[in-house]
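Apologies for my clumsy wording, but could you write out the amino acids of a protein and the tokens describing how it folds?
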Amino acid sequence: MVLKKMAGRGSGAANAGHLVQSEIRIIGGEWRSRRVKFSAEEQIRPTPDRVRETLFNWLGQQLDGLTCVDLFAGSGALGLEAASRGAASVTLVERNPRVVSSLQESIRVFGSSSIKVIRADALEFLKRDESVYDLAFLDPPFGEALTGDFMMELGKRLSFGAKVYYECGQQFEPPSDWRIFKQGRAGRVHFHLLQVV
């Protein structure tokens, strides 16, 4: 199991009877101002514009040549933002089949060959994956936290000096072999940029 339950605000019930579409915009890079659509019925909570702007300020705006993975892809906002800013490759991991279909459609619309979508549980993906990543995005379902086992498996897939973005509903205390490089808060969202020590 990747996640453990924590106290936190739920995302609300889905509207019954019809598909509700939401959208976010890419805020920087080649695809700046382009819109990404996703189903609001899947309880997806994209990283807010203000938080994404802060994150990519921390990362230096351009991600030229980096290999990235988004392990709880949802709307795809973080991974698409990375691709827009020059990442060499972006892997979007998502376990919900309807969300996977939406992500595949977004990639088709954007016409990118540097992004791939994998339908999988994040922890199971890490256990079988053999790639090495320079940057990982972690935005698990709100009110849930990552286990120590998850962080250990993630550490095996990171390059030397790699950074990890982690967004959650409360202040995060990293395992002893990780350090918080930068952190911030926007309302009830806590966000952190991490590195393995």
